[in-house]
Design brief:
The chain is an alpha/beta fold. It folds into 3 domains: 2-250, Glutamine Phosphoribosylpyrophosphate, subunit 1, domain 1, CATH 3.60.20.10; 263-462, Rossmann fold, CATH 3.40.50; 467-606, Rossmann fold (3-Layer(aba) Sandwich), CATH 3.40.50.10490. It is built from 21 helices and 26 strands. An 8-stranded antiparallel β-sheet has the order 3-2-4-1-10-9-11-14, covered by helices on one side. A hairpin with a 5-residue loop joins β5 and β6 (101-109). α5 (131-145) crosses α6 (150-158) and α17 (467-474) packs across α21. The longest helix has 22 residues, at 443-464. The chain is globular and about 80 Å long.
Length: 624
């Protein structure tokens, strides 16, 4: 979703803000802006631009060198429109009517219409269509009323607000002061040496090159930030809150493309290494050559997890697809009933959640608003919440009772790739460890799956070597306006994921289906123009999938098949084939999804589209 940066200290602020906005651009990107001030500067100066951060940067670069050094306090924002079209007027920061306050905001103020009407009654006028401008005017209303005490005014205003927010506010009268607050939308404060300077971000990405000491604001907390003073935090009810300083550790090299043309391609190629990282210290080969799985989350909550007779997986998008694979893994290995729910539906559905249930929340960002709300609901009903998350220290990681990080490093590309395989790896380890504890898997099966799991990174490398093949064949498909993806069993969620990847970055309509369902409707779409991606690896449903492919073939559909190495039968039926090494059924998705990712990538590149920042998409969906 939108990205926030802020800085207060002695350094020239605009390069810090612009760099931070570039790093956050993956979150949302239809417009951007900064507000600058400083002791040696006059008032608050605002720059905004529609489109990419580069457009804003060009504007800010027109500042004279003197002005650059005079501005030492600032806030910046990259926007993903929720209220009002993408435009300079609607871009953040927003100023109060008198120009005394500037504010950046992530989230949604749900009662903004009502508040706006009240403010209009007090004589306020508005330039934009945004809920954010209402919020800054509301803060200004209290600010003017209470003798210009900014923190108090923010508190008073937020007590009137219904909705989600992460905000940073600055005031013209005191350039040495920023106020930040959050509710259901993340905000991190980075602490410079001896409190001399502070960095603010909607996630830790833009802060880590300056400091590793951070404060994650909690919901309904307001931080009062002044250079050379310790940050003070109060709660919305005005009580003072503890300041918890944490260490954050993000590998900065993960934030650059490392020689690849796009983050997405880099992240696809990182997967063998990411999966190794995800298994490190968890899948352990003992001296006797046998494997064991050590998961601290399982050790601490073993009794509760073993008792569970019902698991509910909640997630969105790609993470939901990983959840569908998790369902098969857990049911097959642990014999526990699993439901997979879209978090957005679950949260409003009055679902049946029993005290002994386990709710597994899967999220790359760890900030998805719907998943977070589903967790809240599950906790209220007494279920144990288990998080499978990539974003270290993220809201979901902190809200869950326990969980496992997937440890695949920051995912910057708009389309999720390495997080998906990381999530499946964690779900596999969790299923194995739980099954072992429950006694629902034999030692032979356990060892066989572990042995095969540790081979997956090398097998992924083999698939990735076919990148050129996928690039070449993608040429034949750029014309298509519709795609069908078919798979069964463990490959059914992969079909869904393949279709989602193609849709989101190449803007080609694509649908994933369980292959056998095709004859119940989608078969009507099949003609010689229609590419059909068939996941036909050698598993127990292989022959069934072949029958489904024959149905396509007899209707002249163009088949691109993903097959197990050495398969000759499918090769004779398909126009194009990509081979993946043989593996166990339950691990197939870790290999079969790679050609799906590469295909979507190359089709989008051939179409000249912005692969890393697909239109309308936000990397971190912090609004419902
Ligand atoms: C797809 C994609 C989205 C996310 C979804 C959930 O490529 O990125 O569908 O998977 O928005 O996000 P997280 O996993 O961060 O909760």
């Amino acid at each position: 979703m939108c990205g926030i940066v802020g800085y207060i200290g002695k350094q020239s602020v605009s390069p810090i803000l612009i760099k931070g906005l570039h790093q956050l651009e993956y979150r949302g990107y239809d417009s951007a802006g900064v507000a600058l001030s400083g002791e040696a500067a006059e008032g608050i100066r605002v720059y905004k631009a529609k489109g990419k951060v580069a457009n804003l940067e060009a504007k800010v670069e027109t500042l004279s060198p003197e002005a650059q050094t005079a501005f030492t306090t600032g806030i910046g924002h990259t926007r993903w429109a929720t209220h009002g079209e993408p435009s300079e007027t609607n871009a953040h920061p927003h100023l109060s009517m008198n120009g005394e306050l500037a504010l950046v905001h992530n989230g949604i103020i749900e009662n903004y219409q009502l508040l706006k009407e009240q403010l209009v009654g007090y004589g306020y006028t508005f330039k934009s269509q945004t809920d954010t401008e209402v919020l800054v005017q509301l803060i200004d209303y209290f600010y003017q009323k209470n003798g210009k005490q900014l923190t108090k005014a923010v508190n008073q205003a937020l007590n009137k607000v219904i909705g989600a927010y992460a905000i940073v506010v600055m005031e013209r009268e005191n350039p040495n002061h920023l106020v930040a607050a959050r509710k259901a939308s993340p905000l991190v404060i980075g602490i410079g040496e001896q409190n001399a300077e502070f960095f603010i971000g909607s996630d830790a990405t833009p802060l880590v090159e300056y400091t590793h000491k951070v404060i994650y604001l909690e919901d309904e907390q307001i931080a009062d930030i002044r250079p050379s003073e310790a940050v003070e935090i109060i709660n919305l009810d005005e009580s003072s809150a503890n300041v918890n300083i944490k260490d954050v550790d993000i590998d900065i090299s993960a934030l650059s493309k490392g020689g690849f043309p796009h983050f997405m391609l880099k992240e696809i190629f990182e997967q063998p290494h990411c999966i190794e990282n995800s298994m490190r210290g968890r899948v352990i080969r003992r001296e006797d050559g046998l494997y064991e799985i050590k998961l601290s989350a399982l050790a601490h909550f073993k009794a509760k997890l073993i008792r569970a007779r019902h698991v509910i997986i909640v997630a969105c998008g790609t993470s939901w697809h990983a959840g569908l694979i998790g369902k098969q893994l857990i049911e097959e290995m642990c014999r526990i009933r699993v439901e997979v729910e879209y978090a957005s539906e679950f949260r409003y559905r009055n679902p049946v959640i029993e005290k002994d249930d386990v709710v597994i929340a899967i999220s790359q960002s760890g900030e998805t608003a719907d998943t977070l709300a589903a967790i809240q609901l599950a906790k209220e009903q007494g279920a144990l919440v288990f998080g499978i998350v990539n974003g270290v220290g993220s809201s979901i990681a902190r809200a869950a009772d326990t969980g496992i990080y997937i440890h695949v490093g920051p995912e910057i590309g708009g389309a999720s790739t390495k997080a998906f395989t990381g999530q499946i790896t964690v779900l596999t380890m969790l299923s194995l460890a739980l099954a072992n504890a429950l006694g629902t898997i034999s030692e032979e099966q356990f060892q066989e799956i572990c042995r095969e799991l540790v081979e997956i990174p090398a097998k992924m490398e083999v698939v990735l070597k076919q990148n050129d093949t996928v690039e070449r064949l993608s040429n034949r498909f750029t014309y298509a306006r519709n795609f069908l993806y078919l798979g069964r069993g463990y490959n059914y969620p992969v079909a869904l994921e393949g279709a989602l990847k193609l849709k989101e970055i190449s803007y080609i309509h694509a649908e994933g289906y369980p292959a056998a369902e095709m004859k119940h409707g989608p078969i009507a779409l099949v003609d010689k123009e229609m590419p059909i991606v068939c996941l036909a690896t050698r598993d127990q449903l292989y022959h069934k999938v072949i029958s489904n492919m024959q149905e396509v073939q007899s209707r002249n559909g163009r088949i691109l098949a993903i097959v197990t190495e050495g398969d000759e039968q499918v090769k004779r039926m398909a126009q194009e084939v990509v081979e993946v090494p043989a593996t166990l059924n339950c691990l197939t998705p870790l290999l079969s999804v790679l050609p799906m990712q590469l295909l979507a990538y190359h089709v989008a590149v051939k179409k000249g589209l912005n692969v890393d920042m697909p239109r309308n998409l936000a990397k971190s969906v912090t609004v419902e």
